[in-house]
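Appendix C: a fully annotated inverse folding record. The material below is reproduced so that readers can follow the format used throughout the book. The structure is listed first as tokens, followed by the designed sequence.
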């Protein structure tokens, strides 16, 4: 791990504290998840939002939360909290709440799955959300934040540290248990770590972090359950008629990658059935800009070498004029050959290049779809009349290291 940029990516983290109200008996309401509703006068004005589930009723204040155990309040406060911090409800949930009070009615209060308090301390956010029917909160530490200024204060009970690292807040009416903190690096939700690949060529990043209620309700409490949907537009008019491949590849900031989806699709264009050997792919958001190709250079003569291998299941294998390239199933190959055309040798006969492969500006791209296994003998033709022979060996995908 080197470089400032990588440190910034890795520095974003979250601390989780689960609240277990062992003094209260869980009612049999079924799998009703915790939700938040805005306080519009139905309770004390110090509460900005109310958290409800069959297990508990809690109150989110400007600087923390308050729970009531049979009339005994217990509170957590973030010391020095920003009194002007903005509370933003996130991830709409199903249902509304109506109150009919003696003097007025408060109706159509929407429900939310999470609540973010922005900049509660400099460069620190807090996110409240449910884990099933329990309340959890994340402290999101942005790059440049001073962790030494982050202090939590508890009122209503003297905190005690359990043997497993939990914080226990005991009262005469029961206890609140905060599970020990867990820390991890936060994954960007802007689609920047996801690359869309068509016929082996990266074409851009998807529009990601789109909400869908069925996914959010099925996986409550997970980091991206409120935005696990994405989409990407392509212009199929620039593709040749026939079968193509599309895949979504995910990479972390250490360069390790894996595929999260690979599919075949058919294109039926009215004009022309095949594309030329240098057919350019459409450019999506984040893809390279079209440039005037440099004169093709003839690579150095081939030399015998060991097979090129990669442990990154969807990572790119790059090598200039290799004899053999070895990848896992649905891995990706990118070979700069200086070639303008190519074909596949099958039992000594010339066949078109494999489905899902393409060539562009002298580079051969291929991300074989599911089911491509074994050895493929490919031949590439250069402008000077020479040929380059490459054997691509594809082994079965491993889902766990032995």
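Designed amino acids, in order:
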């Amino acid at each position: 791990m080197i470089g400032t940029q990588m440190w910034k990516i890795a520095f974003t983290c979250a601390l989780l504290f689960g609240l277990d109200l062992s003094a209260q008996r869980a009612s049999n309401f079924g799998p009703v998840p915790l939700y938040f509703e805005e306080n519009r006068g139905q309770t004390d004005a110090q509460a900005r939002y109310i958290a409800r589930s069959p297990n508990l009723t809690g109150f989110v204040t400007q600087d923390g939360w308050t729970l009531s155990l049979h009339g005994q309040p217990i509170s957590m406060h973030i010391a020095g909290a920003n009194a002007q911090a903005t509370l933003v409800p996130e991830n709409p949930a199903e249902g509304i709440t109506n109150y009919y009070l003696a003097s007025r009615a408060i109706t159509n209060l929407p429900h939310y799955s999470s609540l973010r308090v922005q900049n509660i301390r400099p460069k620190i956010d807090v996110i409240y959300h449910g884990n099933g029917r329990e309340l959890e909160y994340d402290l999101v530490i942005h790059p440049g934040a001073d962790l030494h200024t982050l202090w939590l204060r508890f009122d209503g009970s003297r905190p005690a540290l359990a043997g497993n690292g939990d914080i226990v807040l005991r009262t005469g009416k029961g206890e609140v248990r905060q599970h020990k903190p867990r820390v991890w690096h936060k994954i960007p939700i802007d689609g920047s770590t996801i690359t869309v690949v068509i016929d082996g060529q990266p074409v851009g990043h998807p529009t990601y972090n789109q909400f869908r209620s069925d996914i959010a309700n099925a996986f409550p409490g997970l980091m991206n359950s409120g935005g696990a949907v994405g989409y990407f537009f392509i212009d199929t008019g620039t593709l040749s008629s026939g079968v193509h491949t599309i895949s979504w590849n995910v990479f972390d900031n250490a360069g390790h990658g894996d595929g999260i989806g690979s599919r075949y699709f058919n294109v039926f264009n009215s004009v022309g059935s095949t594309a030329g050997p240098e057919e350019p792919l459409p450019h999506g958001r984040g893809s390279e800009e079209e440039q005037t190709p440099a004169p093709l250079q003839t690579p150095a003569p081939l030399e015998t070498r060991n097979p090129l291998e990669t442990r990154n299941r969807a990572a790119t294998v790059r090598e200039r004029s290799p004899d053999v390239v070895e990848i896992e199933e649905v891995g990706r190959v990118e070979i700069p050959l200086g070639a303008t055309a190519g074909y596949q040798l099958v039992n000594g006969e010339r066949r078109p290049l494999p489905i899902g492969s393409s060539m562009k500006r002298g580079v051969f791209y291929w991300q074989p779809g599911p089911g491509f296994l074994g050895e493929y003998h490919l031949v590439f033709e250069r402008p000077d009349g020479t040929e380059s022979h490459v054997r691509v060996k594809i082994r079965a995908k491993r889902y766990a290291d032995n």
